[in-house]
Automatic annotation (TrEMBL):
Reaction catalyzed: UDP-N-acetyl-alpha-D-muramate + L-alanyl-gamma-D-glutamyl-meso-2,6-diaminopimelate + ATP = UDP-N-acetyl-alpha-D-muramoyl-L-alanyl-gamma-D-glutamyl-meso-2,6-diaminopimelate + ADP + phosphate + H(+)
Residue span(s) of domain Mur ligase C-terminal: 315-436
NCBIfam families: mpl
Keyword ATP-binding: yes
PANTHER family per record: UDP-N-ACETYLMURAMATE--L-ALANINE LIGASE-RELATED, UDP-N-ACETYLMURAMATE--L-ALANYL-GAMMA-D-GLUTAMYL-MESO-2,6-DIAMINOHEPTANDIOATE LIGASE
An example Gene Ontology molecular-function term: UDP-N-acetylmuramate-L-alanyl-gamma-D-glutamyl-meso-2,6-diaminoheptanedioate ligase activity
Function: Reutilizes the intact tripeptide L-alanyl-gamma-D-glutamyl-meso-diaminopimelate by linking it to UDP-N-acetylmuramate.
Organism: Methyloprofundus sedimenti
Protein name per UniProt: UDP-N-acetylmuramate--L-alanyl-gamma-D-glutamyl-meso-2,6-diaminoheptandioate ligase
A GO BP annotation: peptidoglycan turnover
Length: 449
């Protein structure tokens, strides 16, 4: 079968393309932004990439067109698909029909931490010889690819609450029908498609409705929004996780930065995790992954052993350089809570050393000006914050200065690089945060320094 994918360079659709190619299909795709690392990953697998959207991209009459959720009516290639009567579907629906049928699906949902937790869980299964399939919205460094079909009955998937396609406004995760489900957390996000928090809770409850009574739900005890959603109706056993609280799964911090902690199940210590990751959010992620692995028969002690060898995910607090005493990090920031948790982990890890946070507010929620006050407050632990304000942002970032006095605005990448060059000193930390390419700042900064 020849499958053509619209929006192929997104992390989800790119991963889907890799799986389709692995299953023996001929795969091609188009995207407005064809750039590494996804373009490189796809080209290496023999997948034809087309720059831009055009009816000409469909001249070969593909057997099936998979349309990404970033596509909308008016897109010339979408219009050509409809006008030519080509067979089409959404990415989540294709996965459900061609990949996830008859699999034990382990799904990781939540506003934050999906990519990291999915990567931890897939690595635990891999370390124990399960050879799972997976589709993750990032590149786990233990694997080097974001997706594969696997050679077992188990499939780990990052379960996104974003909508499926212009013709299917349900959240992606309702297609996956997991047997094991992690609900990491639940906050208001994706303001471009969800009217309010209640709308997101409804979608999460649709997911809960699909989980079998012999399945398992894993969630943090302290997340009120998840508890409220479960109270809407739950037919599946629930195991709760917490730090320093008496729950089914408990972590006790041995280092305050989260780099070392013990794991207990039903008040019985299972072992200690010692790793390079920091932050309480990653402790929660680890607990959830260990609990999910136990559900398919992996002993917690073995899962802990695997996590000691976990290498994290690209662009999740990834150290990209150490230059002149400055450590430079690349982090996929998209929401104030995630930013705050990342900075808290870094602060506990580096102590009083200087942190300069550099942010591109690129997610739809941040571009719409949602969470203005909490965004400013989330950056409080950095001595200095530089925020990029492009011309087309849509709101004045200077409003953030009403809530914080450590914020500086820059209207160009060159200005940001100049500011950072003046801050170079030993034992400093530059934290670059964006869920996009950030104007190529990463290599440009390294070249400057």
């Amino acid at each position: 079968m020849h499958i053509h994918i619209l929006g192929i360079c997104g992390t989800f659709m790119g991963g889907l393309a890799l799986i389709a190619r692995e299953l023996g299909h001929t795969v091609s795709g188009s995207d407005q932004n064809v750039y590494p690392p996804m373009s490189t990953q796809l080209a290496e697998q023999g997948i034809q990439l087309m720059q831009g959207y055009s009816a000409d991209n469909l001249q070969f009459k593909p057997d099936l067109v998979v349309i990404g959720n970033a596509m909308s009516r008016g897109n010339p290639e979408v219009e050509a698909v409809l006008n030519q009567g080509l067979k089409y579907t959404s990415g989540p629906q294709w996965l459900a029909e061609y990949v996830l049928q008859d699999k034990w699906v382990l799904a990781v949902a939540g506003t934050h931490g999906k990519t990291t937790t999915s990567s931890m869980l897939a690595w635990i299964l891999e370390h124990q010889g399960f050879n799972p399939g997976f589709l993750i919205g990032g590149i786990p460094m233990n694997f080097g690819v974001s997706a594969r079909s696997g050679e077992s009955d188990f499939f780990v998937i990052e379960a996104d609450e974003y909508d499926s396609a212009f013709f299917d406004k349900r959240s992606k995760f309702v297609h996956y029908r997991p047997r094991t489900a992690i609900l990491n957390n639940l906050e208001f996000d994706h303001a471009d498609i969800f009217e309010d928090l209640a709308a997101i809770k409804r979608q999460f409850h649709h997911l809960i409705r699909t989980i079998p009574s012999e399945g398992l739900i894993i969630c943090p005890e302290a997340d009120k929004n998840i508890q409220d959603t479960l109270a809407m109706g739950c037919w599946t056993p629930v195991q709760q996780i917490a730090i320093d609280q008496d729950t089914t799964w408990q972590a006790q911090l041995l280092e305050q930065d989260g780099s070392q902690f013990s794991v207990s199940f039903n008040q019985q210590v299972q072992g200690q995790v010692e790793w390079q990751l920091t932050g309480l959010h990653n402790v929660y992620n680890a607990l959830a992954a260990i609990a999910a692995a136990r559900h398919i028969g992996i002993l917690p002690g073995d899962a802990i052993t695997a996590l000691k060898k976990f290498k994290n995910v690209k662009r999740r607090m990834e150290v990209i350089a150490n230059i002149k005493g400055v450590t430079i990090y690349d982090d996929f920031a998209h929401h104030p809570t995630a930013i705050k948790m990342t900075l808290e982990g870094l602060r506990k890890h580096v102590g009083a050393e200087k942190i300069i946070a550099v942010l591109e507010p690129r997610s739809n929620t941040m571009r719409m000006g949602i969470h203005r006050k909490t965004l400013a407050e989330s950056l409080a632990l950095a001595e200095r914050v530089i925020i990029y304000q492009p011309e087309n942002l849509g709101w004045d970032l200077s409003e953030l200065k009403d809530y914080a006095d450590n914020i500086q605005l820059c209207s160009s990448i060159d200005d940001i690089i100049s500011e950072l060059a003046r801050e170079v000193q030993p034992n400093s930390h530059f934290l670059l945060m964006s869920n996009g390419g950030f104007g190529g700042i990463y290599q440009r900064l390294l070249n400057e320094l």
